[in-house]
Amino acid sequence: IAYDACVTDGRRHQYYVSCYCYLDVYFSFFFCFFFSSRRRHTRLRRDWSSDVCSSDLTPIGVFFLVAWTVGKIGFESIVGPLGWYMTTVLVGLAIHGFLILPLVLFLFSWKNPFRFMWQMKRALMTAIGTDSSSATLPVTIDTAESEGGCSKRAANFVLPLGSTINMDGTALYEAVAVVFLFQLYGIELEFGQLIIVVITATLAAIGAAGIPSAGLVTMVIVISAVNMNLSGSASGPLPIAAIGIILGVDRILDMCRTAVNVWGDAVGAKLITRLAPDE
Ligand code: ASP
User: Fold this and answer.
1) Residue of 65, 96, 161, 170 to mutate, ligand 1, most atoms within 8 A of C-beta
2) 184-218 tens-digit pLDDT
3) Cα 132 to middle of ligand 1, angstroms
4) Which of 29, 120, 152, 171 sits between 20 and 30 A of 94, alpha carbons compared?
5) pTM surpassing 0.85?
6) CB burial readout 42-81, b (16+ within 10 A) else e
């Protein structure tokens, strides 16, 4: 009846939207009942919970998140200048995550860094899936202690601190993004201005919260600092609204930089474990 009423009214899309909302509500009811009923855990419920909470399903979720983002912004946005920008960020993150941090871990602890990376996979996958170091924090602490061999003292001190102030991936990303935007607007930065970018991007990353796209917001600080330095020079300031250009592809980059942020924290906890082992 509702469908007929909507179609004769020319509001077919409204009908579909309402159906979708109803389905959503029913699904939420079912899901909440399934997981929060006070009855004894049935085997099915227990298996479901452990599957959802473990990393088994995370790669599938990550695949659909990337597919959804690419579908939303269109494949053609990923080629061209934005493609080069993304490649630069991803290569930078890869060098930092797979070379620099493992090297630091190896030199200071003589442990196999890639084995440790594999042990931390549950936290890294959760970081990729949630785009948030803060949301990942409980998993990071648990994985570092139970699988990564970090001491309780080190994990409980280093990881919460690191999840808010140690954001290597975000600092790297902000610096690349700001230089890219200035170049896109035809403003060449001199050496002194690049140093400003490096310093303010590091400070902005320390100030960024461990939530999705926080780096995109604190990037305003970096752009404003360079703009202040540019005032009086021939090349005009970069409009803050330019950040909108990189908004579409941010989801994919956020997944990767959040994983690097969490990996950096885990490496820190592993190193501190030597200095602060459990008694
Ligand atoms: N999503 C990042 C994190 O939670 C922060 C950012 O770079 O946007 O670590």
Assistant:
1) 170
2) 888 889 899 999 999 999 999 999 999 999 999 99
3) 6
4) 152
5) no
6) eeeeeeeeeeeeebeebeebeeebeeebeeebeeeebeee
